[in-house]
TrEMBL record:
SUPFAM superfamilies hit by this protein: P-loop containing nucleoside triphosphate hydrolases
InterPro entries, A to Z: AAA+_ATPase (IPR003593), ABC_carbohydrate_import_ATPase (IPR050107), ABC_transporter-like_ATP-bd (IPR003439), P-loop_NTPase (IPR027417)
GO terms for MF: ATP binding; ATP hydrolysis activity
The ABC transporter domain, residue ranges: 16-260
Entry keywords, A to Z: ATP-binding, Nucleotide-binding
Organism name: Plantimonas leprariae
Keyword Glycosyltransferase attached: no
Protein known as: Sugar ABC transporter ATP-binding protein
Length: 269
């Protein structure tokens, strides 16, 4: 019986889980028997020192890296993602720090990049013609829906947007198409205070719609403000999961760096 086949403790449902993930690059062990659990409706922050293996673990659960060993489960079903598209098709959307937006294309075109809506009938089927009015309409609805009203012109090229607005478009796109999980890798790293605020509010808005979020971040105030639980990664694996309401930022840093061992009082349920 695999580790995940054991009945989970009673509590919130786990949407995405991993057990015993391993990924080696030559002699470097990027993740070393890593476990991961994302619960329904939560914001799970993933923190850890540089090189702890956070990105590699997240890439494994989003199809960007094939683990050498371990098991991934989505809605408690074992799953293998041969590539990122397979994870997207399963409802897992990832927004990387280097946003995969096309600067010269409009907001609407970026929202539908790789998922363009074609015109009905032969024009769409054979001539591959796009249904631009529909794409504009849906893009506007999705952005409005998430409170991104500051973007007024959906035809504006993405290169003319501020950093925060670009991040907003990337998050909105992922939230619009991610049906199960949204993974955000350092969404506020390149942003100023005001822009970060907007992106944090957007993440909270996405959570309020029921989509669980994985937030990888080095920004402790942001993590402690919005996370429901904090996964601490150390030396390639999960060290513990702490409760931001009972642990402090200095506890988190001490755990991350190995200055302190986890205490029962800090752990999340
Ligand atoms: N493609 C790769 N080839 C070789 N080594 C890699 C590769 N990807 C990651 N590593 C190594 O694996 C280890 C974990 O890297 P990873 O990027 O997952 O850590 P991280 O916790 O996300 O770090 P950071 O916070 O600095 O982004 C590091 O030692 C890194 O150099």
């Amino acid at each position: 019986m695999s580790a995940l086949a054991k009945p989970a403790a009673a509590g919130p449902q786990t949407v995405l889980a991993a057990r015993g993930l391993v990924k080696r690059y030559g002699k470097v062990v990027a993740i070393d028997n890593a476990d991961f659990d994302l619960r329904a409706g939560e914001i799970l922050a993933v923190i850890g020192d540089n090189g702890a293996g956070k990105s590699t673990m997240i890439k494994a659960v989003s199809g960007a890296v094939r683990p050498d060993a371990g098991e991934i489960r989505l809605d408690n079903q074992p799953i293998v993602f041969p590539n990122p598209q397979a994870a997207r098709d399963a409802g897992i959307e990832t927004v990387y720090q280097q946003l995969a937006l096309s600067p010269a294309l409009s907001i609407a075109d970026n929202m539908f990049l790789g998922r363009e809506i074609r015109r009905a009938g032969p024009a769409g089927q054979y001539l591959r013609m796009l249904d631009k009015p529909r794409m504009r309409k849906v893009a506007r609805e999705k952005l409005n829906d998430l409170g991104l009203m500051t973007i007024q012109n959906i035809d504006q090229p993405v290169e003319t947007l501020s950093g925060g607005q670009r991040q907003g478009v990337a998050v909105a796109r992922a939230a619009a198409f991610g049906s199960k999980v949204l993974i955000l890798d350092e969404p506020t790293a390149a942003l100023g205070v005001k822009e970060s605020r907007k992106v944090l509010d957007l993440i909270l808005e996405v959570r309020s719609r029921g989509l669980p979020i994985v937030l990888i971040s080095h920004n402790m105030p942001h993590v402690f403000e919005i996370a429901d639980r904090i996964h601490i990664h150390r030396l390639g694996r999960r060290l513990c999961v702490i409760d931001p309401k009972s642990a402090s930022m200095s506890d988190a840093v001490a755990l991350m760096t190995g200055a302190k061992a986890p205490e029962t009082s800090m752990l999340a349920a």
